[in-house]
Amino acid sequence: MKAKSGIIITGSVVGFMGVLLVYFGNPANMGFCIACFIRDIAGGLGFQRAEVVQYIRPEVIGLVLGSFFLATKNKEFSSRGGSSPFTRFVLSIIVMIGALVFLGCPLRMVLRIAGGDLNAIVGLVGFVAGIYVGVFYLNKGFNLKRSYKLTSFEGYLFPAVNVGLLILLIVAPAFLFFSQTGPGASAAPIWIALTSGLIVGILGQKSRLCTVGGIRDMILFRDSYLLLGILSILVISFIGNLLLGYFNPGFTGQPIAHTDGLWNFLGMALVGWASVLLGGCPMRQLILAGEGNTDSVISVIGLFVGAGISHNFGLASSAEGATLNGQISIVISILILLTISLANSEFLIKNKTLIGGKINEDN
Amino acid sequence: MKIIDTCGMSCPQPVLMTKKALDLEKDGVNVIVDNNTAKENVHRFMQKYGYTVVIDEIDNTFVLKARR
């Protein structure tokens, strides 16, 4: 039980903060949304020009630095990288495209469900379906090969970049873009958002909370450890929403959401499938990036670039629903995911180097 | 005893490799991991599979020995 209390506490705190941040000014059902927040940062820096979603979100900075502090303190900080970085980059772009067609990362999906947004349940069904597909390829030997130890400097760079982002946010030079209206203009005060991020970063590093891992481990190993984290987020944010009067069940009129069931399903299916191949959800990538994992840094940069692609090419959905370009991008992304899955599954190709090699030699 | 080296493999590969190894070597295996997350995950998995686990640490690398 002691082993499980950490993940339950972490999930509960994330659920609590998710509601608290809305109370203090974040958009509805968006106390935390890693995809949305990285997209906002891309906008704040001018890498995408959708005027309503531009802001440097302190929650993201806090997550990375919280993880960095605890990992350093516990001597778990370890600079590593080199595990198929460009494949990870492409996978992360696809995660962002899927998330912005659905309108939220897996974490926001849970918070949307807790707020009564039934479209997010359709998204959850897609998410689980996508994870099943990813697990199918894991069982076929999918892996992105080993990472290697790198210089400490390499691992320190990303946390340093986040300190730089924080300075930019506070100094707010004129070349940044901050939304005047829309979701990007709805934000909790910097110090509250930053502190929330730091707390979740610290707890996330300690407990390994991961929305994709929760469902993946349940399917793969019947291991419920990480799933308890997701359930804790759901229960506590649901209670919080009830208490503050934010709970509003239904499909229509949900905040920053649309009712296109098929594209909600497919958007999250892409997120689930690609995230299983990456080894973790967007939030987990931020935490790992703070621990010195530069493969995860590449993933975060992929999410960032994916946000630019999504908004510059009109792929992201709006309250009216998925765009035609968004629908086309989903189809193309499925083909890319299929190619990546097949090409890296060792039991489907002859090159049985890693998992197959040592174990199967005497069979 | 078979040795499975999971160093550098990202989640959930260390556990998958352990599972595959234990399916073939019922008596037990030695699994090398290079981070705490993998150590905890592999440890939990071995216990769930009904093995007793002994862990040796050498320079932030761990050897988990699963035995019946």
Question: How would you characterize this protein structure?
Answer:
- The complex is a heterodimer of chains A (about 375) and B (about 70).
- Helix content of chain A is about 65%, strand content about 0%.
- By secondary structure, chain A is mainly α.
- A two-stranded antiparallel sheet of chain A has the order 1-2.
- In chain A, about 60% of the residues are buried.
- The model of chain A is unreliable at about 355-363 (pLDDT under 50).
- With about 70 residues, chain B is an alpha+beta fold.
- Chain B is built from 2 helices and 4 strands; from the N terminus they run E-H-E-H-E-E.
- Chain B has helices at about 15-25, 35-50, and strands at about 5, 30-35, 50-60, 60-65.
- In chain B, helix 1 (about 15-25) links the parallel strand 1 (about 5) and strand 2 (about 30-35).
- In chain B, helix 1 (about 15-25) packs parallel to helix 2.
- The two termini of chain B are about 10 Å apart.
- The chains are: A mainly alpha (about 375), B alpha+beta (about 70).
- The interface of A and B includes residues 80, 138, 144, 146 and 217 of A.
Give the C-alpha Rg of chain A: 19 Å
Number of separate helices of chain B: 2
Number of strands of chain B: 4
Q: Could you estimate the helical fraction of the residues of chain B in percent?
A: 25-40%
Give me some keywords for this one.
heterodimer; A: 363 residues; mainly alpha; two-stranded antiparallel ribbon; 1% strand; disordered C terminus; B: 68 residues; alpha+beta; four-stranded mixed sheet; 2 helices; 4 strands; 31% strand
